[in-house]
Amino acid sequence: MDVARPITVGDDMACFLERVSGCYYLVGAGNPAIAVRPPHHHADFDIDERALPVGVSTSTRALLAWLR
């Protein structure tokens, strides 16, 4: 199992979460087969679309749990 290296991200979520309840999570979307991977928000970033169902499923399950 791969272990993610620590990264610093935040966008402005810390400010949002001071005002409303929420959750911030990351879904890995890079392709490890590509040696040099541009970061998110870079014009050459190419998302690994296999990550999309993981993100949708996680968000959906969290919403359904919250609605219960």
Structure, explained:
The protein is an all-alpha fold and 68 residues long. The protein is globular. The chain has helices spanning 13-19, 52-67. The N and C termini lie far apart (33 Å). It has 2 helices and no strands. Helices cover 34% and strands 0% of the residues. The mean pLDDT is 82.
Keywords:
68 residues, 34% helix
Helical run tally: 2
**General form:** globular
Question: Which regions are unreliable across 5 or more consecutive residues at pLDDT < 50?
Answer: none
In whole angstroms, the N-to-C terminal distance is 33 Å
The profile of the biggest β sheet is: none
Quaternary arrangement of the chains shown?
Answer: single chain
Q: What structural class do the secondary elements suggest?
A: mainly alpha
User: Approximately how much helix is present in the residues?
Assistant: 25-40%
Q: Whole-number radius of gyration?
A: 15 Å
Order of helices and strands: HH
Average pLDDT over all residues: 82
Percentage of residues in strands: under 5%
Question: Can you count the beta strands?
Answer: 0
In short, what is this structure?
With 68 residues, the chain is an all-alpha fold. The protein has helices at residues 13-19, 52-67. Helices cover 34% and strands 0% of the residues.
Which helices and strands occur, and which strands form pairs?
Elements: H1 13-19, H2 52-67
